[in-house]
Specification:
Distance between the termini: 37 Å
CATH architecture of one domain: Beta Barrel
Number of helices: 1
Number of strands: 4
Helix content: 10-25%
Order of helices and strands: EEEEH
Strand order of the largest sheet: 1-4-3-2
Shape: globular
Structural class: alpha+beta
CATH topology of one domain: conserved putative lor/sdh protein from methanococcus maripaludis s2 fold
Length: 102
């Protein structure tokens, strides 16, 4: 006998959220790439396996990319390498609640 259970830990209302893959973590910053080619440093809140809350750095209606463009991807890798060379551990957060639909 098997069962599938989903536990609701926290429910968030009126929050700005993006797909998890839209947030990159080069170095110590978390960033989103805007459709206009700009890179925006963001602060994040709770997340789950699909979405992450954005507490600052983006506004509702901003168009974002799901991943870095080629030149920025190379820059991200360099920033990660610099932090690793310094012996710094990447920041992590526990899995949070699913954001409320927009």
């Amino acid at each position: 006998m098997t069962a599938e259970v989903e536990l609701l830990i926290e429910e968030l209302h009126d929050v700005l959220y993006v797909p998890l893959q839209a947030v990159s973590s080069p170095g110590r910053d978390r960033v989103c790439y805007l459709a206009n080619g700009e890179r925006s440093v963001v602060e994040t809140g709770p997340f789950n396996d699909k979405y992450i809350e954005i507490t600052s750095g983006l506004e509702e209606g901003d168009e974002i990319l799901l991943r870095a463009v080629e030149g920025d991807r190379e820059r991200e890798e360099e920033e990660r390498t610099e932090d690793t060379d310094k012996g710094e551990e990447p920041e992590t957060e526990p899995v949070g609640a699913e954001p409320a639909p927009a």
